[in-house]
């Protein structure tokens, strides 16, 4: 069974760093792309970027380039999303999702990680 | 950036009725790269339709997708109470950002 399991909810202060994770199982982790999405009540679902787990090739949305870092450790089938300095505007639910091949849709999603940043 | 506009914002129907949800793109989208997702309260999105009209694994045949170019439709033929959710369309393209989502249609069951 394909599963993406994300790390738990985080409460942080502005200026702190954070790294959240997404562990894949039940499939060949290195042959799929993993995307990260942000969801807020105001802006809805936004695509942040995507990483190919096999060689860590990363593509970012222009809106998030330079704001976050996406990485992966294929030895433990885990993708990461990290911030070096959080702001209150980073408060959101974050989802990872596996991208399927030819038609590019996201077929399996993690359960989400809620990040709350207080000023 | 390709903007996806979904309508209506909210749809309120009775069980057994037919729901028609619209997704309009600001530029032409390849049909191969148009997907629909269902998000129930407190849950992650779930893939319903990919390639504009193909049902994902385990999705009932009450759900169907159609359309091409800039106009796409998700139809739920016979509503059931469990269909209460927000439905999102999503496209993939060569322009930046590669993926965009519509703002969602909230489906309520009377």
> What is the number of beta strands of chain B?
10
| Main beta-sheet annotation of chain A | 7 strands, mixed
Radius of gyration of chain B, in angstroms, nearest whole number? 13 Å
Secondary structure tally: strands of chain A: 11
Intertermini distance of chain B: 36 Å
Number of helices of chain A: 0
Could you tell me the strand content of chain A as a percent range? over 45%
Structural class of chain B: mainly beta
What does this structure look like?
The complex is a heterodimer of chains A (119) and B (110). With 119 residues, chain A is mainly beta. Helices cover 0% and strands 55% of the residues of chain A. Chain A has strands spanning 3-6, 10-13, 18-25, 33-40, 44-52, 57-60, 69-73, 78-83, 92-99, 106-109, 113-118. In chain A, the strands form two sheets. In chain A, strands 2, 4, 5, 6, 9, 10 and 11 form a seven-stranded mixed sheet that branches. In chain A, strands 1-3-8-7 form a four-stranded antiparallel sheet, with no helix packed on it. The mean pLDDT of chain A is 96. By secondary structure, chain B is an all-beta fold. Chain B is built from no helices and ten strands. In chain B, the strands form two sheets. In chain B, strands 2, 4, 5, 6, 8, 9 and 10 form a seven-stranded mixed sheet that branches. A three-stranded antiparallel sheet of chain B has the order 1-3-7, with no helix packed on it. In chain B, strand 4 and strand 5 form a beta hairpin. Chain B is globular. The A-B interface holds A 35, 37, 44-47, 50, 59, 61-63, 95, 97, 100, 102-112 and B 32-33, 35, 37, 44-47, 50-51, 54, 56, 88, 90, 92, 96-104.
Which features characterize this protein?
heterodimer; A: 119 residues; mainly beta; seven-stranded mixed β-sheet; four-stranded antiparallel β-sheet; 11 strands; 0% helix; globular; B: 110 residues; three-stranded antiparallel β-sheet
């Amino acid at each position: 069974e394909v599963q993406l399991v994300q790390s738990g909810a985080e409460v942080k202060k502005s200026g702190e760093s954070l790294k959240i994770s997404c562990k894949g199982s039940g499939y060949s982790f290195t042959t799929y792309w993993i995307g990260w999405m942000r969801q807020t009540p105001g802006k809805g679902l936004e695509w942040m970027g995507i990483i190919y787990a096999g060689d860590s090739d990363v593509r970012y949305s222009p809106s998030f380039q330079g704001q976050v870092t996406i990485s992966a450790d294929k030895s433990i089938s885990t993708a990461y999303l990290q911030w070096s300095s959080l702001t209150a505007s980073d408060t959101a639910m974050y989802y990872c999702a596996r991208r399927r091949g030819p038609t590019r849709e996201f077929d399996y999603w993690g359960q989400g990680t809620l990040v709350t940043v207080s000023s | 950036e390709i903007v996806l506009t979904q309508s209506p914002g909210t749809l309120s129907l009775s069980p057994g009725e037919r729901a028609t949800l619209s997704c309009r793109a600001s530029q032409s989208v390849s049909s191969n790269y148009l997907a629909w997702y269902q998000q129930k309260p407190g849950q992650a999105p779930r893939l319903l339709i990919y390639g504009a009209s193909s049902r994902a694994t385990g999705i009932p045949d009450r759900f169907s997708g159609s359309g091409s170019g800039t106009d796409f439709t998700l139809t739920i033929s016979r509503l059931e109470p469990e269909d209460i959710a927000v439905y999102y369309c999503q496209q993939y393209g060569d322009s930046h950002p590669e993926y965009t989502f519509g703002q969602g249609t909230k489906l309520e069951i009377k």
